[in-house]
Structures
1.
Amino acid sequence: MRITCKEASRLISEGLDRDLGVGERAKLRLHLALCVACERVNKQLNFMRRALRQYPGPDEETKK
Amino acid sequence: MATPARPGIDPLELEKYRPQLLKFAMLQLRNATTAEDVVQETMLAALQSGGSFAGQSSVKTWLVGILKHKIIDTIRRQSREQPLDLGADEVSLEDLGALFQDDGHFQDQPADWGDPEAALTQRRFFEVLERCMAGLPKNTARVFTMREVMGLDTDEICKDVGITPSNCWVLLYRARMALRGCLEQRWFGAKASA
C-alpha cells in the first residue's frame, strides 16, 4: 500500500492527464496525507497548470 | 452573420504583439521560419476577421487564440509528414532518478512556494516561466505545451504526434518535474529564502 515519493510524484502528474484507478487514488491520497514534500509538489503542479493556461500572462506591466 | 458594430482592427495595433506571438510560436515549434509563418498567418486571419473580435477579451488574448489554432494545424501537418522522433531519453524514467534517492525519497526537499497565486499577475513571472519552458527538450516542449498551454487531451496529442499514451504521460511527467525545479530555482526559491 505504501508508495515512495518517486511513485507518488508520477501519480500526481498522471492524475493531471488521465483518471487514476481506485487503488492508485487511495495510495496517492494516503501518501499525500503523510508526506509534506509530495503535498507541496501536488499543489505546485496544480498551480503550474493554472499558470500555463494563462500563458503568456497579463498585458499590463509591460517590459521596460 | 451579425457583425458587432465596432471599429476595424488597426494593423499597427496588431504589429505591437508580433514579438510576443513569435516567442509563443517558437516555444512550441522551435523553428524560426515556421514560427514566422504561423504568426504571419495569424496576423492575416486577424485582419480579415476583425469584425469577429467581440471585444470581450484583450486583443492579445484574441490573437493568441488564433495563433494556438494555427500552431496546432501546423503540428498536425508536420506530424503527418514526419512522425515525432522521440529520443529514448525523453521517454525514459532513468535519469529522473537524479531527483530521487535510492529509497524513492526526494534528493532535495521541494521548497514551500507559499502562496504562489500572486505570481499570476506578474509579467516577470511569465517571462521566467517562458525561459524555463525553452529549456525543455524539443519534443517534450511540444507535447507539454499542447497539453498545458493549448489544453488538448492526451488522447488527441498522442494521435496528433503519433506516440503511445504511456510515452506521453512519461514525457509530461518529466516536463512537469523539470519545470517545477526550474521555477523553484528561478522564482520561488529566491522569494522563499528572502
2.
Amino acid sequence: MRLYRALLHLYPAFYRAEYGDELVRTFAVRSRRAGGGAGRAALWLRELVDLPRSAFLVHGDVLRQDLAFALRALRRSPGFAATAILVAALGIGANTAVFSLTDQVLLRPLPYPSPERLVQLWETEEDGCCNEVSPPNYRDWKERSHSFSALSAWHWRDGNLVGAGAPVRLHGVAVGAELLPLVGVRPIRGRLFSAADERTGAPGTLVIGQGTWQRVFGGDPDVIGRSVRFDDEAFTVIGVLPDGFAFPTREAEFWAPIRMNPDDLADRDNNFFKVVGRLAPGVSLAAAAKEMDAIGAQLAHEYPDTNDRSSVAVQPLHTVNRQSRLLITALVGASGCVLVIACINLATLLLTRALARRRELAVRAVMGAGRERVTRQLLTEALVLTVLGGGLGIAFAAALGPLLAHLVPSELPIVAHGGLDARLIGFALLVTVVTGVAFGVVPALRASGRRLDGLRERGPLGGGRSALRSFLVTAQVAGCVVLLVACGLLLRALLRVQQVDPGFRGAGVLAVQTPLPPQRYQTAAPRDAFYSRVLAEVRTLPGVAAAGYVTWLPLEMGGGIRPVEVPGEVAASPAHRPLASLRFVSPGYLDTMGIPLRAGRGVAAGDNATARKVAVVSEAFVREHFPNGSGLERTFKFAGEDRTIVGVVGEVKMRGLERRNEPQVYLPYNQGMDNDTYYAPHELVLRTSGDPYGQLSAVRAIVRRADPEVPIGKVREVDEVVWNQTASRRTQVWLLGAYAALALLLAGIGIHGLLSLAVSQRQSELGLRLAIGANRREILALALAHGLRVAAIGAGVGLVLAYAAGRSLAGALAGIEPADAVTFGVAVGAAVLMTVSGTLLPALRVLRVDAARVLLSA
Amino acid sequence: MSTRRPSAAEIAALLPLPLAHFHILVALAGDELHGYAILQDVASRTGGTVRLETGTLYRSIQRLLENGLVVESSERPDPAIDDERRRYYRTTPLGVAVVRAEAARLAALVDLARAKGLTPEAI
C-alpha cells in the first residue's frame, strides 16, 4: 500500500488531496478481493500501467484548463500581453539569430563524411602560419608521410568555357586526383579523376557541379563525354557532382585535375597549392603534426636556400579564422546580455501583474484552488507568453538571417545562411522554456506564497524585496553599459578602418573582367592588339573619362608578390629578400584609378617590347631601396628583367585596409613575361561620369567585337571593392548596436516598471509621510537620488565587465584602446540617462499621491 | 443542481461519451455507489469484458463531476453497513440525459450496420 501511495505523487497535489484517500481505499478493497498471489500480481500489473497513464491525463486536463484560463486572462489585458510577448520575442529572437550563426560556423561539422579526420597542411615561416605550399614540397610531404590515408592538393583555377552557349568565365578548382574521393563525394553521373588524368599531356577532363550542369549545359542528359573548349584547350566532361556538394567553398563551379609540369616541380619558392589530408585510422592530429615537423626539418636541411625558415602546420580543415571567431563570440555575449535583461523585464512584468492580481488570486486560493493550483496557473500564463514570444522571436531570427550571412567566413564550404531548421527551432524552444519557467516561477511563487494573504495585505513592503529590486536594476544597468561599450569600441574601430585611405579613388570607376584564353594570347603581340583595340574604343564612349587595364584590382587580389633585387643590396638570406607587389598596367590605368603621381611619369604608350624596360614604383619602394633621392632613373631587377624607374606614385593598399602591404611596382603591360598569361592584365577599368553600370552594355559589345570568345567575368564598381573590405565590420557594429539599443530600451522599460511597482506599493507609506508634513520635493529628490545611486553602482559594475569585454575584443579593434575614454564616457552617460528617465516617471507619480485618499483606504 | 431539463446543445456538447464514462453512468443509473461498487457493477454487467482500473475510474469521476454529469451524494446508507469516509456518487438529470443520448447514438450506429447485413449474428 505504501508503494501505491507513493505512486499517487504522480498526480497533481490538489488531485491527490481530493481523491487520494478514495483511490487508496478502493485499491485496498480490490487488492483484498483479488484472491491469491497471482490475482494480486495481475491487479498490480494493470494498476502500474493505468495509474501513470491516468495521472498524465489529469495533468493534461489541468493544463488545458489553465491554458484556456490564461488565454482568457491575457485577452482581458492586451497591453500587458503585448509588452510581455514583445520583450520575450526580442530576447529569444536575438539569441536564436546568434545561435544560428554560431551553430553554422563553429558547432556544425563540415558537410563531409568523418569531417573530424580532415586536416589542412600549410607551410609556415618564423613570423607566422599559413602559407600555401610549393608543388615540390607537397610532393615530398606526400611521399614521406605516413600519417594520412590520403593527402591531396588544390588551387583555384578559373577558366573560359567555350562550346556550351555564349562563352562564360567559370570559377573552378584544380585538384589532385585523390582530393574528391578524400572528401568523400560520389558523382551522380560519370566518374571522378584517376591518376591517368593527372599526367602531363593527358587529355583534359572536367568534373562539374550540378548547378553548372543545369546552368551552363542546360541539364543536358548526355553531358558525360561532351567536349568543350576550356581556355582554348579541348576538355571532356567526365562527371557531375551532386547538388549541395561544396569544396573548397560553395563558389566552385567545376573541378579539373592538377597537371604538373617539370617547371612546377623545380621551384620551391612558388607557393600556390593548398594541401588537404585525411588522417589515417588511429593517427591523432598531434601525431601527424609531429611527423610533418620532422619532414619539414628534413626538407629545410636538404634545401636550405628555400626551406631554411619554413616548417609545416597541420590544422583541422574546420578552422575558423580568429577574427570571425572573435566577432561571433562577441555576439554571443551581447545576445546573452539582451536575454538576461529581457528575462529580468519579463519577471518584473509578471511580478507586477501578479501583485496587481493578488486579491483575485487570494480569492481563488480561498475558494479552494490551493497554492499549487495558483502557482501552476501563473506559470502557465508565463509559459503562454514566452511561447508566443518565442514564435515571434523565431520570426525575428529568420528575418535577421540574411544580415548575419555577412559574418560567415567565406573560406568555409557552408551556405551563407542556413535558414530555419530543427536545431534552431529546438534551441529557440529551449531558451523559451527556460525563460518562461525561470522567470515565471519566481513571481508565481512570490505571488502565490507570501502574497496569498493578499486579502489582508495592504502595508508597505519589506526590506528584502527592495534589495531584490535594486539588484535587478543594477544588473540591467550593468548589462547595458557592457553592450554600449562593446558596440562603441567596435564602432570606433570601424570608423578608423573606414578612414584608411586605400590610395585610389574608386567612386565612378567600373571594373570589368575580360579574361583572355591563354593559348591564343600566350604571346604579347595578340594581347597588345586586343588591349589596344578595346581601350581605344572604350575611350571614345561618351561618359568615359579615362580607361586602362591592370592585372588585378587592389584589395581583391593580394598576391603577385615578387622578390626585388637592387644592385648593392644584400639580403641576410634568400628568405629575407625584399618583396614588392607586381601589377602590369596599360597607359591610363594610374589616371583612371586616381593614384597620384609624385614624380616622373606614368606608364606611356611608348613603353613597348622593344623600348627600354621601365617601372613606376610607389613611394614606399623608393623609401626602402633609394632613401637618398627621388629614385628616378635608378635600376633594379624585378620579374626577370632590369627595370629603370621612370615614375613614383602614391601608396596603394594592395592586400587589405587592415593589413601590411608590400611596396608596389607597376610595369608596362607589353614589357611583360612573354609566355606567362598569369600576370597579363585581366581587369578593364573605366572612369565614368554618371552611372558606371550604364556603360556595361557598350563595353560588352566592344569586347565581343574584339574577340567573340572572350567572356565578361566579374563586373563591379571599384568603390564596392573598398566597401566590401569593411562589410563584416559594418554588420558587426550594426548588430551589436541594435543589441545595445535593444538592451537600453528593455532596461529603460524594466527599470520604469520596477520603480513604478515600488511607488505603487509604497503609496500608503508615502501618503503617511505626506500627511505628517513631508515635503513632496524632498520625497521626489529621495526617489531620484535612489535611482541615481543604483545607476552609479550598475555603471560601476558595468565598467569593470566592459573593460574585460573590451580586452577580449582587442584583436578586432584596429588599434583602438580597450579602455577608450570617449566610448566609456558615452556608454555611462547613456546608461545613467536611461536610468534617470526610467526613474523619473514613477517618481513624478509620487507628487500626485493623494494623502487623504491613501490613508483612508489603508 | 438545477432540475430544469438539459438543453439539446448541452447534451450534444458532451457526445460522444468516452467508454469509461458511459459505463460509470450506466452503473450509477438509479443507484448511489462508491468507487469500488462502480468497478464491481461494471465488471459484472459486462461479464468481466470491461475492466476499469482505479486510476482511470477516479479521473473519469473527476471529469464527470466537473461536467455536471454526476454529483457526490449527501445521503448515506445506514451507517452500520457503511464506512462513513467513503464517497458515494449519483447521476444528475444531465448525466441521465447524456447517457441516454449516447445509447441512442450507439443504437443508431448498430442500425446502420444492420441495414447492410452486418448484424452480429451474421458475423
3.
Amino acid sequence: MVFYTDKILEHARRPRKFGRVVDPDVRFEELSPLCGDRIRVELRLANGGQILEARFSGEMCAIAKGSASILFESLEGRTVAAAIAISDGEVLESLAGTIPKNRIQCALLPISALRGAVRVEVNGRR
Amino acid sequence: MKQFWDEILAANETSDACLATVVATEGTAPRKDGSKMLIIGGESLKGSVTIGGCVDAQVIQAAEEVMRTGEPRLLRAELGEDDAFEIGLTCAGALRVLAEPVKLDSDISLQLGRALSAGTPFSFLTVTRSLLPSIKPVSKMMVSSSGKVCGSLGDDRLDSVAADMAVDLFSKGFSRTVALDGNFQLQGDVQQAEVELFVEVVGNHPDLFIFGATQVAVPVAALASQAGFRVHVVDTRPRFANRERFPTAGEILVGFPGEIAREHVFNQLSFALLLGHAAKHDLPVLDALLRTDIRYIGVLGGTRRAAALAKRLGEMGHSDQEIARVKIPVGLDIGAETPDQIAIAIVAELLMVRMGKTTKVVGSALPPA
C-alpha cells in the first residue's frame, strides 16, 4: 500500500477537474486494456491552441484518478504543445512518491489520453 | 419462443395445421401455460404440451379431429399421482389445452410478423371459452406493451378490458388464463365464468445486466440465456466483452459501466449482477442502480467487500435501506467453487427470485415400500 501516497489519495478522493466539458473541441477516450481503467479527456481550446477548459471523467483506480487530477489541475492556460511536452518522468515525479513498476501504466494513463486528445485535435486541423 | 411463433406464422399459410396450447395448469403439471405443439397434416410435429407421453398423444389425436372439422376444442387432461406415474410422468396435476386450427386473420398475421422480425415483445390474447353469442372461441387480439391493440375479441368493451389486463400481465411477464363474467369483470370462480381468455406474454424476457465480463460471467451469461433471461454484458474492455466470449448475450456494451447503468431503464423485470471485483466500476454502477426500481442487484464478493461497498455507498448518500437492496455474496449456498459451479449457484438464485420462491430441497426420501 506504500504506493498510495498521501497526495495521490487526497486527489483520488477529491479529484480536481473531474467532470465534463460542455461542447468540447476535443474528446478522447483511452483504455487500459487489461485492468479496465477507462478515461475520457475533454478540452475546450482557444484559436491559438491555448487550453481554456480541461476535464477528465471515467472509471479508474485511485492511482490513475489521482494522477489525472494532479495533471489536469495544471493544464488550463497552457498551450496544447506545452501540455503534451509534459514527460512521463514529470508526471511520475508530480505524484510525490514511488509507484511500483506494475502500476506505472495506471499513473501514465491520463497523460497518454491527453496526448491522444491532442493528436485528434492536430489531425482534425489538417 | 420466437422460432416457434415463426413456425406458427408459416403454418398459417397451410390448410391443415392445428396449434395446441396449454392455457391453464393446476398442481404440478410438467409444463407451464403457453407451452405449444404444432401439428401439421399427418406428418409434421413441433414442440409439446407436456414432457411427452400419453397426454401429448391424446392432443395429437384431438388435433386430427380439429383439422378435419375446422372446429377448436378445449381439452382437459387430469394427471393424478397414480395416473401420472402409470403413463410415465413424474408430476401430478391437470392441464387445459386449446387445440385450434391455425387461422390468423391478415391484420394479426401482418402485425405478428412485424413484431417477430423486430424482436418486439407483445401479448397475444385468445378466447378459450365463451357462453356469449357475440364472443367467439379462438377470437384473437394482439396488444403491444403500451396497450396498442390489433384485432378484436368481438366486443369493444371486452377489447378494452382485455387490453388493460394484457398490459398489466405484460409488465409482470406472466401468461395466464383470466375468467370473466358477463360484464367482462374478473370472475373468481372459473365454473361461473362466461368468457375465458388466455393472455400470453411473448418475448418479454427479464433483462439481466452483467457488469464485468469476467471468467465467472461467461458461464453465467450462457446459463442465464438458457434460463430465459435477455443478457446484457457490460465492461470497459473489448478484449473481455466480445461476441466470442459471450455468444448468447443479447447485447454487449463496451464503455463506462457507470454511465451505461445511468443511461438504461431498469424496472421490476430487470436483474443486475456485478461480477467484476473492481470498486472503480462497481461504485458508479451501484450508485446508478440504487436510484432505479430494479428487481435485483447481486454482487460477487465476501464480507470485507460488502463492508467496504456499504461504507462507500453510504458516503455517496444512500440510506441503509437502499444499500440493503444489494445482495452480496450472490448465489445459492451449494458449495460452488469453480466458475461453472458458481454460475449455477448464481443463476439458480436469479430464477428463485424471478419465480418468487425460497430455497429448499424439493425432494425427500422415498417412503418405505
